[in-house]
Design goal:
The chain is mostly helical. The protein has helices at 5-16, 20-45, 51-78, 84-93, 103-108, 117-122, 127-138, 169-172, 191-205, 211-215, 230-239, 285-288, 299-304, 306-318, 330-343, 345-348, 364-367, 372-376, 379-387, 428-432, 470-473, 497-507; strands spanning 156-158, 164-166, 173-176, 179-182, 274-275, 281-282, 361-363, 404-406, 440-449, 454-460, 477-478. It has a three-stranded antiparallel beta sheet with strand order 10-9-11, with no helix packed on it.
Length: 510
């Protein structure tokens, strides 16, 4: 088989993740260096007829090496070709944080549960069935068979010692109607409860605490299952970083407004022009890395992971929304499409073959959903993002003073309940009927409400007295709590009942 240069460049590109042009420059430099080295070796073995030629070629060798190193650096920064497949592999096999737990800790967690949950777990004698019961209790998603991984849980990766390390899919890998979908928000996750229980088991097993075990002593991880205090995690981690990502442990954490948010679906990132519900951060791989900024991850380590996160962003943007798995009334959905385009598309875009979405911020005075998220991100953190490596020192746009919330694209919206940025509204029917939104509700694990399009829930007037343990209370979403209001987004109030039902049917099809 004849070797072709184009094939060689493609192989180098596939191996290195660089564009063919960058690979060509690298290959040429390698060739020149090796040719000069070969001439020098030959001249040492036997005198050449033209020593001057050998001297010139050998003099060029170090210059070739310098050019090679420079080009490798340039290619690394400018010519990297992100790969979605490598991104998924990185999430499922690489460790970017210290370990949190191990299988031995997992297996004993049920022993610290409140009653009656503890007795229920004790009656399960099969080891594997009890493990599945434990995973369900904490909202940990099982790894789908088709995905690579090193643990049975989608959101964790095993390190060389067999310990489990959290990854992005802990929060961004969930399930709907019992089906696990990577990129779907994990609306089951009981992160606060998990961390508190892990700490108790580590005390019993005399194992050292991790960063999360210590963090929960002063910082709440979540106040309601299915949501997390993730925005504040990013603020705290950024405090101890200089603009170039070097660590400064002497800096002080500012006053914080703790609050829970609902994770957004990953598959809509490709349509957005910036990140987060207020759109303040640039849509690049670097802001995705802020949750890895533990002081133990030095500046050099963070820089070394940059290509990994380019790949992870490529995987995120490659995701497609899941299709609604039940029948849709096509005639009613078409009526709903026309109503939607007349009343909703101004903010949320249009869909279908010629659909268009242009990201825009809706002023808070107009949207009036819970305001705490907007106020909680400190001006100092926004400025830090703008002046630091995270935004290429301001080359990438950072919104310092957002006036409201982004109207997100609605692809796959049927699967992403609960709704609003704080996860306060359990179904799309409740989004459409603002006066009917429940004050307190509790979801079932795998139920799906096809008529109201969203979570299958129990509606209550008060959290039951029997839910005395914090782990039990966190299963109830109480919209009276700070940061958890279900108010706002009352635009559908202008529609007739018939129009609302038609739009609801149409939203199933997105």
């Amino acid at each position: 088989m004849m070797w072709r240069p184009s094939c060689g460049l493609s192989a180098v590109a596939a191996f290195t993740g660089r564009k063919p042009v960058g690979c060509l420059l690298i290959v040429v430099s390698v060739y020149e260096f090796c040719r000069a080295f070969k001439c020098r070796w030959q001249s040492a073995a036997r005198p050449l007829r033209n020593p001057e030629t050998t001297r010139i070629q050998w003099a060029f060798a170090p210059r070739s090496l310098v050019v090679l190193l420079i080009l490798c650096g340039v290619a690394s920064a400018e010519d990297y070709v992100p790969s979605a497949q490598r991104g998924l592999e990185a999430l499922r096999t690489h460790c970017y944080l210290p370990a949190d737990l191990d299988q031995g800790i997992i297996d004993d967690l049920w022993t610290v549960w409140p009653e009656p949950e503890r007795s229920e777990a004790e009656r399960i004698t099969d080891v594997e069935q009890r493990r599945q019961h434990i995973y369900s209790y904490y909202g940990l998603m099982p790894t789908p068979p088709e995905l690579p991984g090193t643990t049975p849980i989608l959101g964790y990766t095993a390190n060389a010692q067999g310990q489990w390390v959290m990854n992005c899919l802990t929060c961004h890998g969930g399930k709907v109607a019992g089906k696990v979908i990577p990129g779907l928000p994990n609306s089951h996750l009981a992160l606060q409860t998990l961390t508190e229980d892990v700490r108790l088991i580590k005390l019993q097993q005399k194992k050292p605490f991790s960063h999360l075990d210590l963090a929960t002593l002063t910082v709440p991880l979540s106040m309601t299952n299915g949501t997390t205090n993730s925005v504040i995690f990013g603020v705290i981690l950024g405090v101890f970083r200089n603009p170039d990502m070097s660590v400064d442990p002497k800096k002080k954490v500012p006053d914080l407004l703790h609050h829970d948010v609902d994770a957004p679906p990953y598959w809509n990132v490709s349509k957005k022009s910036s990140l987060y519900i207020d759109g303040f951060a640039p849509k690049t791989h670097r802001p995705l890395m802020q949750f890895m900024l533990l002081p133990s991850n030095t500046k050099k380590i963070v820089y070394g992971w940059e290509d990994d996160f380019r790949d992870i962003q490529a995987w995120i943007e490659s995701l497609q929304p899941p299709k609604y798995p039940w029948p849709i009334d096509a005639s009613l959905a078409e009526q709903g499409r026309m109503v939607f385009n007349d009343h909703c598309a101004r903010c949320h875009g249009t869909y279908g073959e010629n659909g268009r979405y242009a990201q825009q911020t809706i002023p808070w005075n107009e949207i009036q959903t819970d305001r705490l998220r907007l106020d909680a991100l400190t001006p100092e953190h926004r400025q830090w993002m703008k002046e630091s490596w995270m935004s290429r020192y301001g080359e990438d746009r950072v919104e310092l003073d957002p006036q409201g919330y982004i109207a997100p694209p609605l692809d796959g919206i049927w699967a992403t309940a609960p709704y609003f940025h704080n996860g306060s509204v359990p179904t799309l029917w409740h989004v459409m009927h603002s006066t009917e939104r429940p004050v307190i509700w509790k979801r079932t694990e795998n139920g799906y409400d096809q008529s109201r399009v969203g979570l299958e829930i129990e509606i209550l007037d008060e959290v039951p007295e029997a839910a005395a343990h914090p782990a039990q209370r966190r299963r109830y979403f109480d919209t009276r709590q700070r940061g958890k209001s279900a108010a706002g987004h009352r635009f559908p109030d202008d529609l007739s009942p018939t129009e609302k039902q038609a739009v609801l049917e149409y939203l199933k099809s997105l």
